Amino acid sequence: MSSHELREEVNELREQLTTLRDETARKLDAQSAELEKYRLFWEKEWPRTRIAMICVASTLVVGTGFAIALGTKSTRRLGESKQLDALRAVFELLFDAEHTEQRRAIYTRIAGDPLQASDDDWRIVHSVINCFEMIGYLVSANLLSEFHARNLCYVPAVRVWYKLHPYVKHVRRERGDDPATGAFGQHFQELAKQCSDHWESCGMKLPPDYY
Fold first, then answer.
1. Spatial contact of 12 and 20, defined as CB atoms under 8 Å apart
2. Which sequence spans correspond to the domains of the chain?
């Protein structure tokens, strides 16, 4: 390659580099101008945007709090309604004429020994046990508060359990269960324990063979 051709090639490369430099400078200037425009925009708009974001967040917080409060209040009212329904059902059952008569029979004439009980005795025994079993279940399922159940029926529950716990143990033995912890009459037994604790807290003594 002659010296003349070499100079022409160098000049051509110099022109290409100059063109590339100028194009790069123009692009950088354009990008800087765009960035400056966005900066000015956000300096102007950010305070209003921040206020809008705070308003939206506040609305969400207040709305969520209101929904939680409303849900809690509704849940509480529903629970109170269920408690009231259960309390009404227990009251009607305990003071029903037939059940009252059956409890009187338990206190006065039902045989103390299950082996000596007649078929009619057993019919009454099962009816009364089922009644208190249902009340005990309502308490265990939190459908009726222990406070209401205890204050409403602690006297009959204690008296009936004292008379009928031999029958409960007899049925459990026949079913092959532990007489003290079998499934039959379990809720009644738990209810009787709660009621007997209240009985004693009132200063009344239980018979030695209560359990």
1. no
2. 1-79, 95-201
